[in-house]
Every structure is written in structure tokens, then in C-alpha cells.
Amino acid sequence: MMLVDCIACNNRQGGAGRHHTFYNEMRVDPAERHLRTVVTSGALLSTEDRKQIATIMFGTFNANALFITNRAIAALHSSGRTTGVVVHVGFSTAVVVPVHEACVPTDSVVTLPFAGVDITNNLVNILAERGLNLTSTAEREWMDAVKKEFCYVAEDFER
């Protein structure tokens, strides 16, 4: 079974992103008989976009089997749950997706206009206030790597 994330496979590319993902990154042919393809998508992916994904996967790549699932539902299933709240923090936006019994009430999905780059900028500002100015691209990339390595969401903020 293959798992393909639609972030890397923008529909507007007409399958070019998927081609690169399958053949260059995963080094597989999606038409191979034993392969089953799972495509994860964002919470607000339209039915039309899902149809376009299916058309590309079956028409262009001759996929044998295809399952398109919501990324938040897949995340919960991977932890053995069907109900919960999934927060996806990307580079420029964060998405909060409530899931109840493996269903997403789409009117409850919230997209926030801040995310990873804002956290990195905040950390750079904190260091600047303490006299350490990170101005070059390499220094900002270092700060981003530090953030990814050491920053996390605490389960118990009071501890």
C-alpha cells in the first residue's frame, strides 16, 4: 500500500507532482498489481477535487485501487481514535479540524492565518531582545531547525 499526501500533489499541476512523487521519490509504479494507493487530503477538499484526483490516479497512473481520506481522520485512526481535534500547523497557516466518529463537520474547520513561520519569527525576536540578532538566511534556517527539534505542545501546561 502507498500513502500519498495531496500537499505534495497539487491538483492544479495536472498530476506532475504525483508523477514526481511516485517515480522519483517513492520509486514505484502505481499501476503495479499488488499496490493499493491511499491519498490523504485536507479537511476542506471538495468533491470535485476528489473526482479530479481519482481521474488522474486511474486515468494517468492506471492505479489498481484508490482510497482518498481526510488527513485529520487518518491521523486520529493512526492513534486508535475516531473522535478528537487535530491541529495541523503548516508554514503559513494552521488548521484546526474537529472529528467526531470519523466524520468532519466541515463548518467547524477553522483555518488560522498564522503558523510555523510566525513561531520562528517570534523566537528570532525573543533572541534579538536578548542581544542575539539572527539576520542571515542561514541563521534563520538554524532557528527554524531549533524550533522543529525542541518546540512542542505541552500536554500539561502547568507542569
Protein architecture, described:
This protein is α/β, with parallel strands linked by helices and 159 residues long. It has 5 helices and 6 strands, in the order E-H-E-H-E-H-E-E-E-H-H. It has helices spanning 16-26, 47-60, 71-78, 116-129, 137-150; strands spanning 2-5, 37-41, 66-70, 84-89, 94-99, 110-112. The strands form 2 sheets. It has a 3-stranded parallel beta sheet with strand order 1-2-3. Strands 4-5-6 form a 3-stranded antiparallel beta sheet, with helices on one face. Helix 4 crosses helix 5 (137-150). The longest helix is centred in the middle third of the chain and has 14 residues, at 47-60.
Helix and strand arrangement:
Layout: E1 2-5, H1 16-26, E2 37-41, H2 47-60, E3 66-70, H3 71-78, E4 84-89, E5 94-99, E6 110-112, H4 116-129, H5 137-150
Parallel strand pairs: 1-2, 2-3
Antiparallel strand pairs: 4-5, 5-6
Helix pairs in contact: 4-5
